């Protein structure tokens, strides 16, 4: 199990979160939910940045005369990679509290963590069990085995995976043999559906300009630009894969039929997508651009950028979850406000899709939400997991097959408080929704009071 501990950062005074297969974070605006989510993504995607930075610095590393010099440059590159990424995401350290402190534990092994704190500048230390010396030694040995920079430049497809393999045991839980591909799916994700490809091209060019300025002038990109660029890259990859497999999710299944034999969860998955979208999704590639549509039950086609806000907000999540489930991909997704613009029944179906995706693949989710319907839907699936442990057949007959049931031990939920602290809200295996839904009680009391004022003749 992984964990993050945050102290004195932005609106957060102290927060300790166990990161499980599904982690839920609720709270009022400006209490630090996005900060926590961005910090988790910062660490979960760190291995990718370090791999790329080491690869870019290989010529400098190989130029060093001695093994110790090369090893020291590897270590410096790792440190600088973390510092640079932090600056991009969270700005200059001069704005940090002097008591700023963040630890991210990569497993439940004691001292297997990276520690960030402030001492004039951002300082980085590693827990004893993280074994940073072992990591830099293995990377240096690998680089030495390549011998020449020409070999490295001509064989990136060989070099990069080997670097990634070395890093995986340090940055993945329990020394897994594969990466969890990380992605951040932000609120306002309809920016990739409601705007034209021209806008996305414009954004990409400006992002590249900022990247150039950062390298040449030490100008810092914003976290919004970084996350949006990462998300747009994910969307392009998703669209390319669907286009290459027929252009619809249904054709994707028929083309790769051998992968979907005896998989009832896929049938259920597709039904729930239909209930959310109220339409069939289609995508075509024409003149180097993607054209996306929704086909209604009457076979009328509507361009995706002309569909409802709920359909536009949901489609990127649905595409991604489909590919994760269909291919049993190992991913880590941080999703902001998945309920955006969706009716409560659609939110319930979306939560079912979250359960299917995490149960069928080894993927994990970190979700921020304001919706009591999201929480209540998760509670049903958590209780279904408890019921299935008692009687699987009855639970299945009640509409909850095993791929919908959630294990309480692999689930965590927290509420951010106004005082900058955090409260666990998983009690007896279920989410305590009182903190979220307390306003309903308050409104009910006020409604009764106003009713009595407006209808004095009904008073006894």
Please count the helical segments: 16
Which range best describes the helical content: under 10%, 10-25%, 25-40%, 40-55%, 55-70% or over 70%? Answer: 40-55%
- Give the termini separation: 59 Å
Task: Provide mean pLDDT, rounded.
Answer: 88
Total beta strands:
16
Morphology: globular
Please mark out the parts with pLDDT under 50 across 5 or more consecutive residues, or reply none: none
Radius of gyration: 24 Å
- Tell me the strand order in the biggest sheet: 7-11-12-3-13-14
Beta percentage is 15-25%
Describe the largest sheet: 6 strands, mixed
Assembly type = single chain
Class from helix and strand fractions = alpha/beta
Secondary-structure blueprint of this entry?
Blueprint: E1 2-9, E2 12-19, E3 22-27, H1 33-44, H2 46-56, H3 58-63, H4 67-90, E4 101-105, E5 113-119, E6 121-126, H5 132-146, H6 149-154, H7 156-171, E7 181-185, H8 197-217, H9 223-244, H10 249-255, H11 264-277, E8 280-286, E9 289-295, E10 301-303, H12 309-327, E11 331-336, H13 344-360, E12 364-369, H14 372-390, H15 392-397, E13 411-416, E14 422-424, E15 426-427, E16 430-431, H16 434-454
Parallel strand pairs: 3-12, 3-13, 7-11, 11-12
Antiparallel strand pairs: 1-2, 1-4, 4-5, 5-6, 8-9, 9-10, 13-14, 15-16
Helix pairs in contact: 2-4, 2-7, 4-5, 5-7, 8-9, 11-12, 11-13, 12-13, 13-14
């Amino acid at each position: 199990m992984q964990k993050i501990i945050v102290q004195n950062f932005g609106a957060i005074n102290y927060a300790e979160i166990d990161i499980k297969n599904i982690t839920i974070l609720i709270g009022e605006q400006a209490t630090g939910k996005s900060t926590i989510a961005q910090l988790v993504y910062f660490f979960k995607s760190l291995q990718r940045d370090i791999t790329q930075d080491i690869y870019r610095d290989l010529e400098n590393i190989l130029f060093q005369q001695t093994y110790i010099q090369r090893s020291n440059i590897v270590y410096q590159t790792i440190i600088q990679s973390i510092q640079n990424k932090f600056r991009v995401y969270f700005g200059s350290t001069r704005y940090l509290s002097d008591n700023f402190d963040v630890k991210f534990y990569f497993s439940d092994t004691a001292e297997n963590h990276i520690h960030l704190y402030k001492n004039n500048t951002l300082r980085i230390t590693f827990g004893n069990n993280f074994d940073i010396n072992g990591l830099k030694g293995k990377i240096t040995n690998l680089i030495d085995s390549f011998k020449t920079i020409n070999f490295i430049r001509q064989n990136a497809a060989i070099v990069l995976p080997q670097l990634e393999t070395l890093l995986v045991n340090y940055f993945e839980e329990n020394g897994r043999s594969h990466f969890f591909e990380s992605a951040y799916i932000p609120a306002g994700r309809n920016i990739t559906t409601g705007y034209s490809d021209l806008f996305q091209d414009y954004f990409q060019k400006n992002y590249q300009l900022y990247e150039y300025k950062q390298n040449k002038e030490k100008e810092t990109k914003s976290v919004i630009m970084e996350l949006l660029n990462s998300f747009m890259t994910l969307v392009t990859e998703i669209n390319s894969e669907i286009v290459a497999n027929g252009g619809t999710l249904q054709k994707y299944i028929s083309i790769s039929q051998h992968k979907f034999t005896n998989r009832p969860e896929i049938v259920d998955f597709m039904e729930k997508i239909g209930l959310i979208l109220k339409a069939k999704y289609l995508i075509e590639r024409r003149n180097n651009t993607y054209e996306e549509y929704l086909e209604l039950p009457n076979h009328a086609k509507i361009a995706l950028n002309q569909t409802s806000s709920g359909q536009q907000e949901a489609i990127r999540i649905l595409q991604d979850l489909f590919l994760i489930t269909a291919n049993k991909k190992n991913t880590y997704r941080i999703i902001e406000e998945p309920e955006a613009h969706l009716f409560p029944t659609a939110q319930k179906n979306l939560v079912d899709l979250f359960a299917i995706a995490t149960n069928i693949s080894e993927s994990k989710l970190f979700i921020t939400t304001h919706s009591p319907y999201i929480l209540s839907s998760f509670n049903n699936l958590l209780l279904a997991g408890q019921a299935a442990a008692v009687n699987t057949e009855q639970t299945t007959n009640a509409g909850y097959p095993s791929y919908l049931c959630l294990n309480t031990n692999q689930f965590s939920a927290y509420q951010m408080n106004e005082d900058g602290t955090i409260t666990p809200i998983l009690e007896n295996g279920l989410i305590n929704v009182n903190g979220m839904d307390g306003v309903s009680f308050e409104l009910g009391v006020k409604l009764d009071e106003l009713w009595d004022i407006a209808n004095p003749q009904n008073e006894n």
